[in-house]
Amino acid sequence: MRKIGILIKKEIMEILRDKKTLIIMVLVPLIMYPLLIIGMTLGMSLIMQSEEEQEHIVGYYLEDKAYLQPIEELYQQEEWDFEISFVGASAENKNTVLDMADVWIGFEERAEGIYITVDYTSANTESEYTADALEELADRYREELLMANLVREGLSKDFLYPVVFKAVDSATATETVGMSIGGAMGMLLITMIVLGAFYPAVDITTGEKERGTLETLLTLPVTNFQMIMSKYVAVTLFACVTAVVSMISLAGAVAFLLLGMPEESAGGMEQVQLAGYLSSIPMLLVALVTTAMLITALCMCFCIFAKSTKEANNYITPVMLVIMFASMIGMVPSIELNYRFALVPLVNVSLLIKQVFSQQMDIILAGITVLVNMGYSIIVIWILAKMYDSEDILFSDGFRSFRILQKRSDIREGTIPANGDILMCIAVVFLGMIYIGNMVGARNFFASLVVNQLFLLVTPLFVVWYMKSDKKTLFCIEIPKLRYIAGTLITYAGVFCIIMLVSMLMTALFQESTQNMADAFTEIVKQPFIVLVIVVALMPAVGEELLFRGLIFGSLRSRIQVKWAILISALIFGLFHMSLVKFLPTACLGAFLAYIVWRGKSIFLSMMIHFLNNFLSLVAMKYPEESGRILPILAKEMFSVIDICVLAAIGVVCVLAGYIVLNREKRA
User: Fold this and answer.
1) Which helix (H) or strand (E) holds 72?
2) So what's the pLDDT on residue 407?
3) What's 52-159's CATH class?
């Protein structure tokens, strides 16, 4: 611990020598929040006040004076929160009046009544404001005419309104204001934490490489874990300071709005009770600290690949965009913190902040939010520590090597796609499936599946051809041994049981997403069975395996440890399916498929299992009753305790048995 303490002190001094860090950490939060919150509130108040005080001109034809006169008299008889001046014009000088008028009002008498037409420009604020004011006057004039007609006929107002509807808002001013600004406050706080962690993370990771001091640090009598933990703690401290300073600045800005602004400018915020926030501050502070821990670990994980600060900025920018997008979820009025969203990192904090501002914080959900972000932080820190133990990662070329952008004539035979090539390939596949697949899917959803699978098949083949890679080595094209086939099938039986349990858990957590996915497959299974086998089972077994276990896993395992190549390719495979329900089960399947490709030295093993897995799912969806009679477990939506225990036992036994068969040669 003493060594870590010394290293932390050293890292803090290194960070503090850059004055830009202090500006981002202290000055920006102290200045940004007052400017954004107070400045924008006062600015909008002044704009609205100026609109009310400014005289707005309404132009009309002089021959319409008789129609306009009642409305003009109504305007003069009562007090209104707007100023309007009516200017008449003849046909000859209409253009002159039109140039100075904000709107033009016209009248047309028909059998059913008088039609009023207002010509305005929605792109002009003053014109739109004047049109709204005239609409309010016309509504009042219409109501007076209606009441006069009722009196003339000896009828009361109740004749027109036999049913009266009145909505009573039970929300307090605090809840209303909190729901209005709470989401934005969450985004601001998380954004400031990102800025507080960003510059220190770049400086003590990529900066060390740029200054040439990383090699020197690695020779010190400390472990790599002690070194990375000292760097992580130092950056986290700065991110936490930024979070605390941001919170203080935010509290001051909100307090000013509640206490210091005049009532006409506060917009109802003066009714909010500040005392209600005090009990939530400790939990909010803990949530922000765990958020700072997670964001720091994420930033350092990406910075470790860069060789220059410019390159690190390029890596961190997408991460910042993803984090900011997650924090913006809290701004959606219909989304609130619940047990499902409490499991989603960063999103849960944004929703928790919205709860705090509306004084509706659920202490259980808040505790889950803190624990979840703490858990994710520990996982990312563990990954970061493992990455720092790998010299291949510390001194690799990162993601900046895009060899696929070179001329094919300049690429040597046997070139293995670099990390940058993999990243570009994933981006191309993802965007192609979104745009091309959705364009086709707008007319025929099943046809979009075919297009997507062809896209998955062509992309890795093109990359391997263009880069002159060794197809047999990269794709592991080799006839598998019978022992590996047997071990793979036995292991898959266990993995299948485990995936069923994981799928049940995800279905319970994300029921709405599960229903949407089931509705989509309802249309798919209407196709002929042989067509479904080709499109849903065979094509993914070939195309997806060539991409994920061939190009991606094959390239990664040549540069990093196999276990990391398996994990990364599995996560990409899970994300590729773009479903919260399918992410974890698909990632587990992807990890198993990558393992058997590596252990059995043949991509045909993963193709076989991929086909079998999709085929079983297809049969269960196409013929649910028949498959339920053969294998009753497939027909159950929820499992009993006995079912869970049986599946878990079979899963563990089969996985262990398959592992023994697959690795028997190694022990011998």
Assistant:
1) helix 65-77
2) 79
3) alpha beta
The per-residue pLDDT for range 227-273, each reduced to its tens digit, is 778 888 888 888 888 878 777 777 777 666 666 555 554 455 555 55
Is residue 59 exposed (0-12), middle (13-18) or buried (19+ Cβ within 10 Å)?
buried
Q: What SS3 class is residue 337?
A: coil
pTM of the model: 0.61
Please list the residue range(s) of the chain that carry CATH number 3.40.190. 52-159
| Confidence check: pLDDT of 89 > 50 | yes
Q: What are the Cα distances from residue 208, in Å, to 306, 308, 470, 474?
A: 11, 9, 36, 34
- 36-48 exposure pattern, b = at least 16 Cβ within 10 A, e = fewer: ebbeebeeebeee
Axis-axis angle for helices 309-328, 173-211 (nearest 10): 170
- 3-state class (DSSP) for residue 481: coil
Which residues lie below 8 Å from residue 14, measured CB to CB, with a gap of 6+?
A: 203, 204
**CA–CA distance from 557 to each of 180, 192, 388, 594 (Å)?**
49, 37, 17, 10
Tens digits of per-residue pLDDT, 430-466? 877 777 766 666 566 677 788 888 888 888 899 889 8
Could you read off the pLDDT of 554-572 as tens digits, one per residue? 988 887 888 889 998 999 9
Residues 344, 325 contacting (CB under 8 angstroms): no
What kind and span of H or E run contains 84? strand 83-89
